[in-house]
Design brief:
The structure holds two protein chains of two kinds.
Chain A: H1 3-20, H2 26-34, H3 42-66, H4 72-89, H5 92-106, H6 110-143
Chain B: E1 16-20, H1 24-35, E2 40-44, H2 47-55, E3 62-66, H3 74-83, E4 89-94, H4 99-107, E5 112-115, H5 120-124
Classes of the chains: A mainly alpha, B alpha/beta.
């Protein structure tokens, strides 16, 4: 099997894995389909922006939850932002944790919020690592003279 | 500025849309989805920016308005735009799943309210029939 076929196979398998395990959903596939000659780096750019945002929001939430009197409305507002952006890029697991997190905020459950925050952090790191792997494979295909396979 | 010719794949080439959302990520995704349809996209970070654009004479064929934003939220901005006489289609976009929140937002003057994430199919459904301008 030549290198390009091998790489295409690896991308297909890895993409299937990301969907099967719920890391990403159809929204992510939609964004990948939007990639074209005029905006080849769009997905990498928006994902990068998402993780920068994620980091800021996680830090803000952590600070808010460390306070003696927790402002749950403020925490909820950060969760709400993350919920919106995660659903917009198809980061399904992160989005699902945000749903549970919002419930903890509404219940003013500090321990629940702290657990959710840890989970959000964990999911962000996992997704970041997984997408870096995907993007590396895509770069390898391009370097080998091929093009990124169309997403199904 | 409104209306325009259709290109060969059915998208409008002179269709102006305003995306109002405080999230840079969401604005970027929505911009990409809409420019893929051939639409011209402008962005506003909150309701006040959206209102100011209209005060300064801007017109849009379609406005996508987020619900929760700092400085001026979606419902307030929508009420202000309608009070100014803005007749553009305003579509509320929210991560909030409560029906009561959607209802309040709609009552502020929206034409429709949808939940995030926006998809191409959803966005395309708001394209008016051609030749109605």
């Amino acid at each position: 099997m030549d290198l390009l076929s091998q790489l295409r196979g690896q991308i297909a398998d890895f993409s299937a894995f990301l969907h099967r395990e719920g890391f990403v959903d159809d929204q992510f596939t939609q964004l990948q389909k939007l990639r074209d000659e005029s905006s080849p780096g769009f997905v990498v750019e928006v994902v990068s922006l998402f993780f920068e945002d994620c980091e800021k929001l996680v830090n803000n939430m952590a600070k808010a939850l460390e306070q003696q009197i927790v402002d749950f409305k403020q925490v909820d507002s950060h969760v709400h932002q993350l919920k919106g952006s995660s659903s917009s890029i198809g980061a399904a697991r992160i989005h699902n944790v945000c749903i549970a997190f919002k419930t903890c905020c509404e219940d003013q459950n500090r321990d629940g919020c702290v657990r959710c925050l840890q989970q959000v952090n964990h999911e962000c790191i996992q997704l970041k690592n997984n997408l870096q792997t995907l993007f590396k494979l895509e770069q390898q295909i391009i370097a080998a003279g091929g093009s990124i396979p169309a997403m199904q | 500025m409104a209306g325009g010719e259709e290109n060969s794949d059915g998208g409008k080439t002179d269709f102006h849309v305003l995306v109002v959302d405080d999230s840079t990520v969401v604005r970027m995704v929505h911009r990409m989805l809409m420019t893929s349809l051939g639409w011209k996209v402008q962005e506003a970070k909150n309701g006040k920016e959206a209102v100011d654009l209209h005060i300064n004479g801007a017109y849009f064929d379609l406005i996508f308005m987020d619900m929760e934003m700092p400085i001026m939220n979606g419902p307030t901005a929508t009420r202000e735009l309608r009070a100014m006489g803005v007749k553009s289609n305003i579509i509320g976009v929210t991560s909030c799943t409560f029906e009561s929140a959607h209802k309040d937002f709609i009552e502020a003057g929206l034409n429709h309210c949808v939940s995030k994430p926006l998809t191409i199919a959803m966005i395309s459904s708001f394209l008016p029939d051609s030749n109605n301008k």
